Amino acid sequence: MRRGEILGLNRKNLDLVNKTMRINQTCSHSKGGPFIQLSTKTESSERTIPFPSELIPLLQANLDNLEDKKEKCGDKWTSTIEVDGKMIKNDLIFTQWNGKPMHPNSIDTWFNKFRANNNLPSELTFHGLRHTNITLLLISGVDVGTVADNAGHAKKSTTLNIYQGSIPATQRAAADKIGTLLGSQVPDLLNGPINSKTKKPAK
User: For residues 59 and 173, what is the distance between their CA atoms, to the nearest angstrom?
Assistant: First the structure.
């Protein structure tokens, strides 16, 4: 997911039962500060993506923390936000201390501290985690179409062009799988006749 997609995620579009996230709005910023818009980077960026069960406790903990922040803020909590010129109920999952939308750069600021505290490579960026995820999926043998859909790429060719370095590994994995399937058949084929001629029927 992109930074703006994460910060635009709301409670309505998070399904902890079916383990899916609906991406249909993003958080952007202007001179007036961060704002939410009911649009994504491209039409194909609007999508529903699954997430692993391991994320459920973390997401639930964040939702619980959100309720605690609301209670502590009281009247200072931002209960409504402007989305495409309309004021709607604020159900954002990731917010500032008072419920206002977060600036996308806030993610980078947090991640830089997290990276330093956990002795991670200094060249690793938060957006780089998106690339790492896509690369690992391709190396694991997930088909390009599924990876492109999850990433929100408009075309499969976009995924292929950016991550073509990972494709040879998937091709090797595919060849190895074919080898496994053929493994039980090749010995029989070797023991059989090669280019055997079919006898012509007698006249």
Answer: 34
Q: Which two tokens stand for residue 79?
A: 């209960």
**pLDDT tens-digit series, residues 49-90:** 888 899 999 999 999 999 999 999 999 999 998 888 789 899
Tokens of 182: 């053929």
Contact 25, 40 (CB under 8 A): yes
Determine if residue 33 is left, alpha or beta; phi over 0 gives left, psi from -120 to 50 gives alpha, anything else beta: left
**CB 83, CB 25: distance < 8 Å:** yes
N- to C-terminal Cα distance for the chain?
Answer: 73
> Are the C-beta atoms of residues 126 and 106 closer than 8 Å to each other?
no
For the record, the structure tokens of 110 come out as 């947090």
| pTM for the full predicted model | 0.70
